[in-house]
Automatic annotation (TrEMBL):
TM annotation in the entry: none
High-level lineage: Bacteria, Bacillati, Bacillota, Clostridia, Eubacteriales
A Pfam family reported for this protein in Swiss-Prot or TrEMBL: Glycos_transf_2
Gene (name only): kfoC_2
Domain Glycosyltransferase 2-like: 183-344, 428-605
Protein name: Chondroitin synthase
């Protein structure tokens, strides 16, 4: 089996069409050094650089760190790269053409495009024989559609990711330093025999053995339900049953049962749902790794009635309070300390969401295990459920001292909190600009014509314009007492320009806005202000579209393509996104400064933008500094704008600009390498694309 893994990320053709610059990564799973060579070229230059994303992907093996490469070769149409270790060799054929040079990407990070030579069926089959179907599918996907990989069935992926028989046996023999008893409570009522057996088998075969199951049956009148429950209860000492005389099961009755359990940790499981065989082992492993953890949840999916087919994987973020307030992404299965349960007091009857909100509020540390360890039956919320969910959120707001109204979200089962805006603070909008008279005019007019919030000022930062039209426009704006034009006459440095402009602002809240933005949402300032005013929130970002109504920005994901990239790039405007994430308020690691609001005190706390990032990554670095001070980042889909992206500055496609970009990449890695794993993404999702497709 081939152990050499590689990926060609990008190809650049120089403007004079004399050279190609190829970037990507290569790693040998055999843990041997890789040699990179080009075939039939007059010369080639290989430069290596660190790829923290690959380093984390391969569990921090030392050779996995410096896996990035940049190859410079003379321009020609057909090319071949050879990756070799002392034991094996792998090759990659690709070709360049006019499209390679002129291809424009939809992201600052997608600077290049490559096209593999699949010009005839014979070469395609040879590629499959050399590299396998999976690698071929990946490369076809990259070339043709750059969307989620449709050719991989989730069931196949799940089977591949499951613990092997060997690993399960190893787990059974492992002795933890701390082995708490886990008490699982399940409420049943006329549950089918097959569903009960699926659930029971998954518990009985757990590789971690210190658990008990407490069944609360609500007077099932299905004889087979009672029969099979008692069958397991009589056979296993750690399975207990409480059979009610009438169907009076409520969450509080389950809660009373939980209080009587003997485990140090407890959990709820829906009737008929079941666990992976290593679920409890992984939970206890997480507890042993950090003894402060007192609330644990995992990824999950949906299982068919037959119990054999799996779908709708829910690859969840780590703990994200605003995301959880938008919808219950933890769902039904969680394990928590009994002490935490005892401390929360009463909760709303039949309200799983209310229970989870209280548990997560009181938790010392929350652990998310990014493995699919829970398989749930499909369930749709009814109107009563939705109203109870909204009531649970409302009650939480009262407990934490936040004022707001809870409304229905943009899809069923999601919610939006309209937070109360305190007072009428001045908002300062900073817009850097060079030339582009019509672009700036469209931006300014959209602000004045559409904004419902009126207490704002605009600071335009003039930077080395040369066209007469823009200076005439500045003169026109001089009569508007809400607008000031200041001048930055040094070379372009986005960070320095905004830091300079900040000192000229008077507002308590600052918006950094690109000149190629057009406002869509009339109450955009209010929507951003309601979050940025909240204690604990540092920055609020917006949802941006290309002119064709596809997504340009819906937040930033760390680690994409080795550094960072935009979430859901290229998706349609009305798309829900992965697990509805294009339609909910959520916590993210970073947002673009093309439209970003921050509180003045937070800006001052992090000392503004880092001027060592003149063009790229300054906004991501800025957000990470804010996060480092303990503030959360918010993305809201309720602020929509068009973004024409880099009109003033132009595209980053020259060799000189690429060199500058690479310098900023290296600086970003050096500064934030340990942060490259994004807690608001998921380890099971690809870092090669922006579409939340499976990592393969």
């Amino acid at each position: 089996m081939r152990s050499i893994r590689f990926c060609i990320d990008d190809i650049l053709v120089t403007e004079d069409k004399t050279e190609l610059v190829v970037t990507g990564w290569a790693y040998a799973e055999s843990k041997q050094p890789i040699k990179i060579e080009m075939v039939n070229v007059d010369y080639f230059k290989v430069e290596k650089f660190e790829r923290p994303d690959i380093f984390h992907q391969y569990k921090e093996e030392s050779l996995a760190l410096e896996t990035g490469f940049k190859i410079t070769i003379p321009y020609k149409e057909k090319n071949k790269i050879v990756f070799s270790t002392k034991d094996e060799e792998a090759t990659c054929n690709f070709r360049s053409n006019d499209k390679t040079k002129t291809q424009k990407s939809r992201s600052k990070l997608d600077v290049f495009m490559f096209i593999f030579d699949f010009s005839n069926i014979g070469k395609l089959f040879k590629y499959i024989m050399d590299y396998g179907v999976m690698d071929t599918l990946i490369r076809i996907k990259r070339v043709i559609i750059k969307t989620s990989l449709k050719g991989i069935k989730y069931n196949d992926w799940l089977n591949r990711e499951r613990a092997s028989t060997k690993e399960l046996e190893k787990q059974r023999k492992h002795v933890f330093e701390y082995s708490p008893k886990i008490s699982i409570v399940v409420a049943t009522y006329n549950t089918t025999e097959s569903n009960i057996r699926d659930m029971m088998k998954s518990l009985i075969k757990q590789t971690y053995s210190n658990w008990e199951l407490c069944i609360v049956d609500g007077a099932s009148n299905n004889i087979s339900t009672i029969k099979v429950l008692k069958e397991y209860q009589n056979k296993y000492d750690n399975i207990k049953g409480n059979y009610l005389s009438e169907n009076s099961i409520t969450l509080n009755s389950v809660y009373e049962e939980l209080k009587l359990t003997s485990g140090e940790f407890v959990g709820l499981l829906n009737q008929g749902d079941f666990l992976e065989l290593d679920a409890l082992y992984k939970i206890v492993e997480g507890i042993n790794n950090n003894r402060n953890v007192d609330f644990i949840y995992t990824d999950e999916d949906r299982v068919s009635d037959s119990g054999k087919e799996f779908s709708e994987p829910q690859f969840k973020p780590d703990w994200a309070p605003d995301t959880f307030r938008s919808y219950n992404y933890i769902s039904n299965f969680a394990v928590f300390s009994k002490k935490l349960l005892e401390n929360i007091g009463e909760f709303k009857d039949n309200q799983n969401y209310d229970l989870l909100l209280k548990l997560t509020e009181g938790a010392q540390e929350i652990l998310h295990i990014s493995k699919v360890l829970y398989h749930g039956r499909s369930y749709n919320k009814n109107k009563i459920d939705i109203e109870e969910d909204k009531e649970a959120i409302k009650n939480q707001l009262e407990r934490i001292g936040a004022k707001g109204i809870v409304e229905d979200g943009l899809f069923q089962g999601s919610y939006k909190v309209e937070y109360e805006i305190a007072d009428n603070p001045l908002v300062s909008i900073i817009i850097p600009n060079k030339d582009e008279h019509e672009t700036l005019k469209a931006c300014i007019e959209s602000i004045f014509e559409k904004s419902t919030y009126k207490n704002f000022e605009i600071i335009i930062v003039e930077n080395n314009s040369t066209e007469d039209e823009i200076f005439k426009y500045y003169e026109e704006l001089a009569s508007n007492n809400k607008i000031r034009v200041i001048t930055w006459d040094k070379e372009f440095n986005y960070s320095a320009i905004n830091n300079y402009a900040f000192n000229e602002t008077k507002g308590e809240y600052i918006v950094f806005l690109n000149n190629d933005i057009e406002v869509i949402t009339p109450n955009w300032i209010e929507e951003m202000l309601m979050h940025t005013q909240r204690m604990g929130i540092g920055i609020t970002g917006a949802k941006l579209y290309y002119p064709d109504d596809t997504i340009q920005h819906a937040g930033v994901i760390l680690g994409l393509r080795g550094v960072a990239g935009h979430s859901h790039g290229g998706f349609k405007r009305d798309d829900l996104g992965f697990c509805g994430r294009l339609k909910i308020i959520q916590n993210l690691s970073a947002v673009t400064a093309a439209c970003l609001m921050i509180r003045r005190s937070v800006y001052e706390e992090v000392e503004g933008f880092d001027e060592e990032f003149p063009v790229a990554f300054n906004d991501i670095d800025f957000c990470l500094k804010v996060r480092g001070k303990g503030h959360l980042i918010i993305f809201t889909p309720f602020v929509e704008m068009y973004h024409y992206e880099s009109k003033s500055r132009g595209e980053d496609t020259t060799v000189e600009k690429i060199a500058r970009f690479e310098k900023e990449v290296k600086r970003f890695h050096k500064k934030w390498g340990l942060w490259i794993r994004d807690p608001y993404y998921n380890d099971n999702l690809t870092l090669d694309e922006e579409d939340f497709s499976l990592k393969v």
